[in-house]
Amino acid sequence: MVFLIALVVSLAMTPLARKLAFKIGAIDVPKDDRRVHKTPIPRLGGLAIYLGFVVSVLFMLPMSKAIAGMLIGGTLIVAMGIVDDIKPLSAKTKLAGQVVCAIILVYSGLRIGKFNIPFMEDTAIYLSFLSIPVTIFWIVGITNTVNLIDGLDGLAAGVSMIAALSLSYVAHINDLHWIPWVVEANGGSSAAIMTLAIAGACLGFLPYNFNPAKIFMGDTGSLFLGYMLSAISIYGAIKGATALATFVPVLALGLPIFDTAFAILRRALNGKPIMEPDKGHLHHRLLSTGMGQKRTVLVLYTISATLGLSAGFMSSSKMIDAVAILLVASGMMYMTIGIPRFQKQKSTLKE
């Protein structure tokens, strides 16, 4: 029900968001070679995703302090995204807004309390006074990773949907419990419902966003999706069955996390500011091999789904399966990075 409600609302609201984008000037005009599209495209599609999520959650879930905090923070970050989609905000302003929204979650009781240590049962690192800054870092970090992969038609929406379905599956197979981070317990079933709401809202938006896109989600959508996925991954508590469960959300959100990590490392090695945009993201590298947008997005969907499967097996203590799938995903990501470099070297040798 929650999936279907979110899907229908998002599907119905996207054309209205498109009309609103034209009226208020939330248009993405290609001004540099980083942008793949060549004609102006309306942004603000994230508003439909937001409405699909909020309507379904309010209809299906009882209100609690934690859920209220997520909805308030999510609403504020959507408001900031709308402003940014109309007239781009500075990086510092956006970062400050994200920190404020993260603090709202901390105040509502959501925080990362500990990290379990892999392969050491009942052993964990308790964060104590570091709990708040680590929680804020996680929320702001994941919020920006989703924002950074929003570079091709349908990419951010599809990857977010896959990650949300993976996290919802993890909640289900662990007896409706979640990961060992949170102070507030018994949030597993609510977390599963909210991730399904995100997945439904993203699927309702995709028919208008898949190549050739009629509308982009803009920062309104990418910031909201990153914020909610980071928040929900903290919400609830898994029954400490395995220390490796700590890595479940990292794997489920693996594609945007790894892509951002590669980008930071690449820019640092090249002596460039880590916030400076470039054309070195995974989707740019695949496009440079001659792949079209659709094929590139489908390859990245496959990598994301493979990482999500690994997270599911890992959370159910099927370690051999999880490691095997993770190795496949790692190989796919290595090929994604290495193929363009190999072809470039081959072309240089021919010349």
Which helices and strands occur, and which strands form pairs?
Elements: H1 2-24, E1 27-28, E2 41-42, H2 46-60, H3 65-86, H4 91-107, E3 114-116, E4 124-126, H5 131-148, H6 155-173, H7 188-209, H8 218-234, H9 248-252, H10 254-269, H11 282-287, H12 293-315, H13 319-350
Antiparallel strand pairs: 1-2, 3-4
Helix pairs in contact: 1-2, 1-7, 2-3, 2-7, 2-8, 3-4, 3-8, 4-5, 5-8, 5-10, 6-7, 6-8, 6-12, 7-8, 12-13
Describe the protein's architecture and organization.
By secondary structure, the chain is an all-alpha fold. It is 67% helix and 3% strand. It has 13 helices and four strands. The protein has helices at 2-24, 46-60, 65-86, 91-107, 131-148, 155-173, 188-209, 218-234, 248-252, 254-269, 282-287, 293-315, 319-350; strands spanning 27-28, 41-42, 114-116, 124-126. The chain has a two-stranded antiparallel sheet. A two-stranded antiparallel sheet has the order 3-4. It is globular and about 55 Å long.
